[in-house]
Design brief:
Helix content: 25-40%
Number of helices: 5
Number of strands: 6
Structural class: alpha+beta
Order of helices and strands: HEEEHHEHEEH
């Protein structure tokens, strides 16, 4: 994220409603969100997603160290990485899901969460950084299509 902001339950409800097509208003026990001090828990049908947010640079030695992570990326992606001032981790907790399906579920949500405040999306398991210059949106749409 370009600016630190609290990515809590309130910020997740509307994007989750758009992503999964079900209101997150407490009317459906299979589609709800709940916030703890460190996480937002999001139930999306049979999927359980956690959202962990943190102010500061991802992978940096200090809160302001954006160079540590940027050093592992090509220069064009590194410039987006250097804009970050906060980050959030989105994880599917269903351990029995195929990776393709898990990425598809997360991509559906991230398509709705990602806006101009976002520098890009980093997939730690692959080392892939998707810059928020149209690259991220295109790849997220591809991941959703693969999972369907």
């Amino acid at each position: 994220m370009r600016k630190p902001f609290f990515l809590g339950e309130e910020a997740i409800r509307e994007p989750a409603t758009k992503a999964f097509g079900v209101p997150y208003d407490g009317s459906n026990p299979m589609y709800f969100s709940q916030q703890s001090p460190d996480l937002v828990w999001l139930k999306a049908g049979s999927y359980l997603i956690t959202v962990f947010h943190k102010f500061g640079a991802y992978g940096g030695k200090t809160e302001d160290d954006v160079e540590a992570g940027a050093a592992y990326l090509p220069e064009d992606a590194g410039r987006f990485w250097r804009e970050q001032r906060a980050w959030a981790a989105f994880d599917v907790q269903n351990n029995d899901l195929p990776e393709e399906e898990a990425y598809g579920v997360l991509a559906k949500l991230l398509l709705q969460v990602t806006d101009e405040r976002c520098c890009g999306i980093f997939l730690p398991s692959t080392g892939l950084f998707l810059a928020n210059d149209g690259t991220a949106e295109a790849e997220l749409r591809r991941l959703v299509a693969l999972a369907n």
